[in-house]
Amino acid sequence: MTDHLPPAAPTAPTPPSPVRSLAPFGVPVFRVLWIAGLVSNIGSWMQTVGAQWLLVDSHSSPAVIALVQTASAAPVLLLAIPAGVIGELLDRRRILIVSQVAQFAVVTVLVVLTWLGETTPAVLLIVTFILGACAAVQLPSYQAIIPDVVPSPMIPAAASLSSVGVNIARAIGPAVAGLVVAQLGVTAVFIANAVSFGFFLVVLLLWRGYRPPPSRPEPFLDATRAGLRYVRHAGIVRRYYARLLLFLLPANALWALLPVLASGRFGLDAGGYGLMLGALGAGSIVGALILPSLRRRAGAGGTIMIAFLLYGVACAALPLIPSIWVALVALILAGMGWIGVLATFNGTVQAFLPPWVRTRGLSVYQLVLFGGTAAGAALAGLLGGMVGSVVVVVVAGACVIALGLVQLVWRLPSTEGIGRAIVTADGVHDGDGASIDPDSPVVVVIRYVIPDDALPEFLATMAQLRESRRRTGARMWRLLQDPLSPGSYSETYSFGTWREHDSQVRARTTAYDEQLSERARTLSAAPVVVAHYLVAEVPSGTRRAR
After folding, report:
1. Class of 442-534 per CATH?
2. CA 126/CA 71 separation, integer angstroms
3. Where are the alpha helices (DSSP H) in 145-154?
4. Helix 324-352 × helix 358-387 angle, to 10°
5. How confident is residue 428, by pLDDT bands cut at 50, 70 and 90?
6. Where in the chain is CATH 3.30.70.100?
7. Looking at domain 21-215, which CATH architecture does it have?
8. Which stretches within 185-323 are classed as H helix?
9. pTM for the whole thing?
10. What is the DSSP string of 238-261?
11. pLDDT single digits (tens) 44-92
């Protein structure tokens, strides 16, 4: 089933104006937020290295040292979905402010304890988990705030720049942390992280012009179910997330086993490993600069295919290269492929998700990203111990190449031309329902009279409309046929509450959804009849039925 509608008549769409790679930096708010995010991410990577070094210095076991990464990533897997709901219902800027305050306070306590020599492995892991939890809460809000501050055509480029910032921090943070630890000690690393949170906090406090997009109040559990229901029934989003997960599982072998390749295959020390990370970061920057031009020429699907192939070839070739200098070139190409994949997925999904569910949809993206990263790294480590790191990285690269070639026959759907603006649904809602209890369950019944010659098109439209109703809130959907009245069909779908139905009509229906409804209505030979039914309370009987 496709998510596209064929055009009603031939059109000649005006091609979008080219968006330069660095165009989002022309938006002052985005520019400042990007710098603040970069500084904060560098501080977080320094924090991770400092925590691991402190455990090494205290002669902790390798298992405990490895738990630092687990304690940092686990909260994202646990809190991604609730964090998306919170970011949808509350002011995103305030969420970021509270998160920065909490992280600044926690790291300040860690600085004091470390200065006094009281930081035990248990304390360090608890602090790492709390910082990971704060990051998990703010991630969906930070990602969703980008479309709030840049024009729609700039969203993919802005997402690309955000991904570049993350990769720059990933390359710079550990190297800077190593220098700071060697010269000033672990406490100085924790102080630097606290300063990074403080800097981000000041930026947010000085940003007074943010106006959050309008949102309709919803109970937390209802909002959670609505977000998951949307992703489940949004075919385009679901396919993009599935393809991203398939990429992450093999692709993370390179990141997970790069330290082993650096020391074992190339005989490098910590400085050499930092150089390899720097090459990946440099590739990310170059990739981000050429990405908008590539997207204009190849589209999102073509860009992802090229990025898959580039990353896969570089990954497969790296362990077989005898020269470190040639290996650095391969890592630059891998960085270009990596940013091409992540930024294109992220930017495409950000631009496609409707405003009412954007943060919740991005929380699922974070779940896929971190879950795929954790699973891929763990799998690579397990297989590396069995067959060797060189074999694992080469095979992983071959898998990514195969995924790129699959794109030739199993294409990702295009998101161009699908109306994402929110509209008020027509022909579905009878009155404003002001006197109805908002918690009352409701069933909507829409009756059509379909001529025989229009039946195939009607049924095809209903298949698409079923997904539209479900992703905008319906919990059940059926198409019924009256056996005594030829051509008479009833579309029936239900909501858990009248509040959900009201939100569907007023805040969740996109132009594309309404286009589907309009097509179904125009196929009816008689005026479409819409009826709403609430659950009637039947008193419990006091006598046994006979």
Report:
1. alpha beta
2. 8
3. 146-149
4. 150
5. very low
6. 442-534
7. Up-down Bundle (1.20)
8. 186-206, 220-233, 235-260, 270-317
9. 0.80
10. HHHHHHHHHHHHHHHHHHHHHHHI
11. 888 877 887 777 677 666 556 656 666 777 788 888 888 888 888 888 8
Token look-up 């779908």 returns: 493
Burial class (CB in 10 A: 0-12, 13-18, 19+), 259: middle
Write the burial class of residue 126 (CB in 10 Å: 0-12 exposed, 13-18 middle, 19+ buried): middle
Pairing outcome for strands 442-449 and 529-534: antiparallel
Residue ranges matching CATH 1.20.1250.20 in the chain: 21-215, 219-416
Residue pointed to by tokens 């109040």: 217
User: Phi/psi class of residue 59: alpha, beta or left (left: φ > 0; alpha: ψ in -120 to 50)?
Assistant: left
CB 158 within 8 A of CB 171: no
Work out the mean pLDDT of the chain and round it to a whole number: 84
The strand pair at 476-481 and 529-534 is best described as unpaired
Cα-based distances in Å from 540 to 119, 488, 543: 63, 35, 9
219-416 belongs to which homologous superfamily? MFS general substrate transporter like domains (1.20.1250.20)
**Tens digit of pLDDT for each residue in 36-53?**
999 998 998 888 778 877
H and E: helices and strands count for the chain: 16, 4
Number of C-beta neighbours around residue 121 at 10 A: 17
Cβ-count burial 4-30 (b if 16+ within 10 Å, e if not): eeeeeeeeeeeeeeebebebbbebebb
